[in-house]
Amino acid sequence: MMRGPLLAIAQRMRKRFQTDRISRLIQNYLDSGRKPWSTGYAEYREKMISEYLSNEDLISRFRSNGFLPEEYGNRLDERVVEFPWVLSRLDFSESVLLDAGSALNFPCLTTHRALIQKQIVIYTLSPEEVIRDARISYVYGDLRRTLFRDECFDEIVSISTLEHIGMDNTLLYSGDSRFNEKRPEDYLLAVQEFRRLLKPGGRLFITVPYGVYENHGWLQQFDRAMVERVRRVFDGSRAEVTYYRYNEDGWNVSTAEACADCRYFDIHRKSGYDPDYAAAARAVACLELVK
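Request: output the structure for the sequence above.
Response:
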């Protein structure tokens, strides 16, 4: 008879322990100088993203390509602009959405009001942590050749994924040596696949690191010519591209021209930090394409 109350107490204790642990990690990150990828960085980033996504004024700025607050996302990576940009453009209706690359696989995202009514299929290379929600399905495979029938998705979201396709994915994302590749043009095969999977009038949201072309082995940074190739290969009825740039004051909306000289900070190749404390990309191109 006591099992129910005891279980509830144990669950509350675990939740409190986890909350206290996260708070300590975040405080350690703040006390240690807020260095990207240091202990507590991931927890602090998730906390800030959750706060940003609950700020309706901020979401409205992303929706209208407006300027962001001073020091927005300072010392944080590009997810702080990619997530709110995508969620600001999704409608709140029921639909079937493909998360191509598993960027949305966080409870603070899948429970956001822009996603809560959607059936979500998360498609990625290898098994990872699973959210137990009947709305969410997981499929593992190659985005260049998926198992889905034609025109089965209303929306496709591909956040910072195209830059890894055809590259060396064994560094971080897969233990399968088949995915240690040097096929930098293969991102276009994924774009063609996205078009096949979308229903007529369906929308595709893509974000990629942007600036000077760079090949880091495990990813490539897109330049203007590559972004134009994505638009051309998708060949949709409408296309819009928004740019965001990072500097020592944080992230803000920008232009293709102003971002053209940006370089990627690769934590896997660097032994220290640059003066602006960039965490990864210094600019992103955000594409909304309609079939």
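Residues 1-31 form one domain.
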